[in-house]
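Input record (Table S2, row 314):
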Amino acid sequence: MNKTTAAAQVLDGNAIATAIKAEVAIDIERLRAQGIQPGLTVVMVGNHPASEVYVRNKVKTSAELGIASELLTPPGSVTTEEMLQLIEKLNAREDVDGILIQLPLPAHVDAKRLLEAVSPEKDVDGFHPVNVGRLQSGQPALVPCTPAGIIETLRRTGIPIAGKHAVVVGRSDIVGKPMAMLLLHENATVTICHSKTKDLEGFCRSADILVAAIGKAGIITPEMVRPGAVLIDVGMNRIQSQAEFDRFFAGDAKREAGFKKNGSVLMGDIDPHAFALASYYTPVPGGVGPLTIAMLMASTVRAARLRRGLPVST
Ligand code: NDP
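Output record (NDP complex):
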């Protein structure tokens, strides 16, 4: 077991998200003064109790900040063709700056085709190949919200990135790959690990900044963490067994009360015992999660600006 370093500091995602949203609200006021009303349309297909909470939160936050938001809910039986027609209409609408197709989609719908049908100018999630390419080549792009929020967190906290060894575990198009690219643009030396990586522990232990985006509860153990590292935990996993709870949270009375009440508890990919070794870390919940919605708001305003040729921050 590694030795504990000087006090690890929590990166408070809620506080950072609040600050970002306040700035976005000011920017929206500025745009409104120029007669521009940013608009976001969220499309959620079928019934998804898990997605519903996120989606309603996105729409609610948009409204609070002054974005004209709209939620479209086609039935689960909708076809790919019908969805393509809907997207075409949204692409053509002048009052829509951002289009978000909530994932996952039903298996019979061709998700790839839909995501590619969204106009790159309105692709606030940054999933369209044009935006992926723009991000890679360092051009102004719409960037996936979760990794963008992580970079904001590091920047705002004054955590140096340039010259550091950043290890990203996970290579999804939504988190891992864009995260690695953003860190590279910030001049980190970046390693991407995945399920076929040999010696994951060795790579993780050499990280100054370790981003875990895997989706497996507590897979990053204290032995895999270099004392003083910055730990960013993207994972959102629900654990339900008493044995798992005891392994990760024994003695945590507050979580135990929640576990007893709900029969489960949310945790990240990093074993919480590793946090004590870090210089900084994001907790789960309350770390990376809240940033994603704040960055979606920022992305919608960015899309409104880029589409009109107005200046944006980098
Ligand atoms: P994916 O399932 O798309 O990707 C997971 C990645 O982890 C893959 O690249 C996979 O490797 C890798 N992986 C799986 N097992 C291992 C292993 N044993 N060792 C090393 N690498 C492994 O997930 P996402 O990227 O979409 O999401 C990751 C996590 O982040 C999830 O828990 C998700 O819920 C959460 N999330 C949280 C968000 C937030 O706002 N907080 C937003 C988005 C996601 P391979 O490619 O080889 O299969």
